[in-house]
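> tool_call: predict_assembly(chains=two)
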Amino acid sequence: MSSDKIVLGHGSGGTLMHDLIDSTILKHFPAQNPGSLVDAVSVQAAQDHVLFTTDSFVVSPQEFPGGNIGDLAVCGTVNDLAVMGARPKGLSCGLIIEEGLELSFLERVLASMAQMAKTAGVPIVTGDTKVVERGAVDRIFINTSGVGEPVHAMAGLDAVQPGDAIIINGPLGQHGATVMAAREGIAGLGDLRSDVAPLWGLIDALLEQKVEVRLMRDPTRGGLATTLNEFVAPGRFGINLDETAFPTDPAVEAYCDALGLDPLYVANEGKVVMAVAQKDAQRALDILRAQPLGRDAAIIGTVTDEPVGKVVLTTAMGGRRFVTMLAGEQLPRIC
Amino acid sequence: MSSDKIVLGHGSGGTLMHDLIDSTILKHFPAQNPGSLVDAVSVQAAQDHVLFTTDSFVVSPQEFPGGNIGDLAVCGTVNDLAVMGARPKGLSCGLIIEEGLELSFLERVLASMAQMAKTAGVPIVTGDTKVVERGAVDRIFINTSGVGEPVHAMAGLDAVQPGDAIIINGPLGQHGATVMAAREGIAGLGDLRSDVAPLWGLIDALLEQKVEVRLMRDPTRGGLATTLNEFVAPGRFGINLDETAFPTDPAVEAYCDALGLDPLYVANEGKVVMAVAQKDAQRALDILRAQPLGRDAAIIGTVTDEPVGKVVLTTAMGGRRFVTMLAGEQLPRIC
């Protein structure tokens, strides 16, 4: 048995697995007490209910400019809580590992998770480790679930009304374009870099100023187009987007132009889109722009009376087109 | 595109994925409101903190006598909460699906999850679905995480003392032996059947009678031997087991005898082992035996002064042997 690779016994429940957990996993996640490996842990919440979410991560390649699967696993779940106004209180880490995986890679992924969790201010409190035989999984898949404390209330989709501003905290498509380019081995297309980042700090800063945010979402798989189509789906209002107002990343623009991709459909991992009461739109922008992750925030559109149920883009040339939901698969295994 | 198989687009985040969720997944998990697909949901807890756990399921084969991977996914997480005295309040369902999976199989798994969750009295409240290309995962892996409300307090491992009774609710090894036999295609060895079952009802019935249970665990991977070695690991006491006191399943006995396996190391998915104050041991047994899942409950051992840190088995022939923790892998992908 080689000591620098995962073997099936590391998933046995026995001494090898205890060694892996003690010597490799808990080294990175010290919040868990190595002396009391229990399967369920207590998470303190200051209120009488908690927010609960889950996400599995299968990104390929598993390391890319700007991050790796571990960064995604932490940020994805933190952000799912954050856009609901919930402070992340505890994350779980479920690892499914392929026999033969290099321990050095596992260490990098776990170190990234630990660092990102620290940045987000949330401990990784419980976990599970399975090892499957070669070929039964592609290197490593990670599930993170999260428990959050609801500290900011938002009125929700039902409260969105014509005149509300649509605001995003930065340029679209950085994560998707980076993973796509990394997978294809495309180089020389500029400084592509995933935007993977935990958004709780940014969102908390905004909401504690009592800005009237109706709702927020993180436009991940399917991109902004899909998220905004979910906004308009109830059929009470439409959304008009102004192409000239979008913050842009030149590297993403160049990449998408070269491949004929529309950044509206490309995945993000550090973006939040929100509908904000018109009266608070400028104030929201100011607060967001004062934060590193909101530096490029912009009002990119407006909620409209009609056409109901539709997202319309006014292009830089003054034309108008419908932005529909992504149908099939733009890029599998983007997160 | 064939309509009875999963395609990559089912994981896109777009309309195909919305269709899969609406037409297949939410049909089974109606607790989630199809009109408001959000990534994090509120879970009510009656107290100020919650129990939180996670588990990934990779069992092979994914259907076996007595259950399937979906049954395991619900029971495993319910039981991790239950042994901590926590009433399960909400489960998540994270699916990683291989392109090409038959929808009929997915439906069976989801139906099992829904039925088992109903039996356990816990809703499946949030989820995530990823689809990966053929060969990147073996059919389907499932992560379930769970949030529970701590309704019964147990003193814990530190309170265990010599004289305490070790009690189990039924015979060992039914899940592990069944999966092993199903994998090897062995037939004619009797009526092997997984013991997969949600234990909250049994445990709740016991603890609400104020029986002094020090702690409980579910002996899954690594079997009872591994769990009891975790009990004695702090080195304050030992455990003596009486082989003649164990409840047995003739089908498991026959299978293990034939293959030279020790049921002490074979996985269970519907068993709980507990240390109970001597004064309450008989009462605990009576309460457990009145429940279907505790019909075969037995006192199988005693906490001893010495040898500290060791589990000793007194065999049917009167001999004594150490029962050590499982080292490597008895059987990969047992759960």
